[in-house]
């Protein structure tokens, strides 16, 4: 008789027998299995910064809408040959928002200001600083090309042109771009709601107790406010799920509630294989989540899975590992759940200011920052409990699984936190 495997119904499940997995495998598995889980709505564009476009945006209007002057000066029909030239001015002027209705005859010029539509008969503008004016006559030196200091209608954006694709997260400057292109409303994804849950009997919420009243075994919950702030900065709706004790029922109850309130959950702590590692125990016993042991430092125990259909990212408890795993794994996956594009962190090759011998086997990430000499410095300790190094750093130096001996001046890959 054939005995079938246990039904896992788990989008994160690895093939049977696979235990340690390289980071790139973990990332590509995540990438393959994530799809948007949020609804859509239409928003006025000025309220849409930080939201993800759910439909491509298409220009409704040329930008600029008409040929206009790039400078304050005098407009006429170009070109002007080499040498001095004199022109009579027409009466009146062309200003931004106050066009000149008449025609400027060949050989004459008109006073024109920046942004003004070019009147009929004008295709070139000379800068006022290059002009001598006496009464209603001007003189300046050529040569001046036809089209000098002119902005052409539609030279930036043409009506009907695609502007930004679905899945693009709107930056502040995108709002300006869309508005200038005549767009008033955009279809966006609802914000992804991401819950953050801490775990551990020793972990105390900041604000619940004064430091001097805590026993030496207690530690403040650093992960939860840190991760909530990071999620908010990325444009997600961060939901505080509190801190569970090391009692399985407490954890189960909070995850059950989370499943009705949020689209995804980040937990930290309790994912190793110790007696009090209840997140992983819950996964193991109730079979709804799968632990991945990813070959990275800091980090490794990372539990990924579904709880009642909601993706759970079970992060390590150490703040450094929790933060780094959030950047590396949760960040790109959450973006896809939110309707956005998978994100490859931005990286730069920068000369190292440090020496390091790295063993083969695991990918490794050092807390790092760019020094005043333009080289990248690494934090003095690699201990994953050293949260001071997170604050000190502005990014990570990334090493792949290979063995490596870095000496000062060697190029290394720097990933700024802002590039995740
Ligand atoms: P665990 O994975 O639960 O064994 O936790 C690993 C380490 O991270 C332990 O030293 C915990 O005390 C610490 N830790 C767990 N959760 C937090 C948290 N929310 N804030 C700060 N440290 C934590
Ligand atoms: Mg714990």
From TrEMBL:
It catalyses: adenylyl-molybdopterin + molybdate = Mo-molybdopterin + AMP + H(+). Keywords: Magnesium, Metal-binding, Molybdenum, Molybdenum cofactor biosynthesis, Transferase. Its cofactor is Mg(2+). The keyword Zinc-finger does not apply. This is Molybdopterin molybdenumtransferase. Belongs to the MoeA family. The keyword Transferase applies. InterPro entries: MoaB/Mog-like_dom_sf, MoaB/Mog_dom, MoCF_biosynth_CS, MoeA-like, MoeA_C_domain_IV, MoeA_C_domain_IV_sf, MoeA_linker/N, MoeA_linker/N_sf. One of its GO terms (biological process) is Mo-molybdopterin cofactor biosynthetic process. Catalyzes the insertion of molybdate into adenylated molybdopterin with the concomitant release of AMP.
């Amino acid at each position: 008789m054939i005995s079938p495997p246990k039904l896992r119904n788990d989008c994160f499940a690895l093939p049977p027998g696979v235990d340690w997995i390289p980071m790139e495998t973990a990332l590509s598995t995540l990438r393959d299995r994530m799809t948007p889980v949020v609804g859509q709505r239409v928003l006025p564009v000025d309220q849409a910064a930080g939201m993800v476009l759910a439909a491509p945006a298409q220009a409704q209007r040329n930008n600029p809408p008409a040929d206009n002057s790039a400078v304050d000066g005098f407009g006429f029909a170009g070109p002007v040959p080499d040498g001095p030239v004199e022109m009579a001015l027409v009466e009146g002027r062309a200003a931004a928002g106050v066009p000149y209705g008449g025609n400027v005859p060949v050989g004459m010029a008109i006073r024109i200001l920046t942004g003004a539509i070019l009147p009929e008969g004008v295709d070139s503008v000379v800068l006022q600083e290059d002009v001598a004016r006496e009464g209603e006559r001007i003189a300046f030196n050529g040569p001046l090309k036809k089209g000098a200091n002119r902005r052409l209608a539609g030279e930036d954006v043409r009506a009907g042109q695609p502007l930004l694709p679905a899945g693009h997260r709107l930056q502040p400057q995108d709002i300006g771009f869309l508005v200038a292109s005549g767009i008033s409303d955009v279809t966006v994804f609802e914000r992804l709601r991401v819950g953050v849950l801490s775990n551990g009997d020793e972990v105390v919420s900041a604000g619940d107790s004064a430091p001097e009243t805590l026993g030496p075994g207690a530690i403040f919950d650093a992960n939860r406010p840190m991760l909530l702030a990071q999620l908010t900065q990325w444009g997600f709706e961060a939901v505080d799920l509190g801190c569970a004790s090391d009692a399985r029922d407490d954890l189960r109850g909070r995850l059950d509630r989370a499943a009705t309130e949020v689209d995804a959950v980040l937990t930290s702590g309790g994912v190793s294989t110790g007696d009090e590692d209840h997140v992983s125990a819950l996964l193991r016993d109730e079979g709804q989540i799968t632990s991945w042991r990813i070959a990275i430092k800091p980090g490794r125990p990372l539990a990924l899975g579904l709880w009642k259909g909601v993706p759970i990212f079970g992060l390590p408890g150490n703040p450094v590992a929790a933060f780094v795993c959030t950047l590396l794994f949760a960040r790109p996956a959450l973006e896809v759940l939110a309707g956005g594009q998978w994100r490859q962190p931005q990286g730069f090759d920068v000369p190292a200011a440090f020496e390091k011998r790295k063993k083969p086997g695991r990918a490794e990430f050092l807390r790092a920052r760019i020094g005043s000499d333009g080289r990248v410095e690494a934090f003095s300790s690699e201990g994953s409990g050293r949260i001071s190094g997170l604050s000190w750093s502005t990014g990570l130096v990334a090493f792949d699984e290979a063995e490596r001996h870095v000496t000062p001046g060697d190029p290394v890959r720097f990933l700024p936190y802002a590039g995740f």
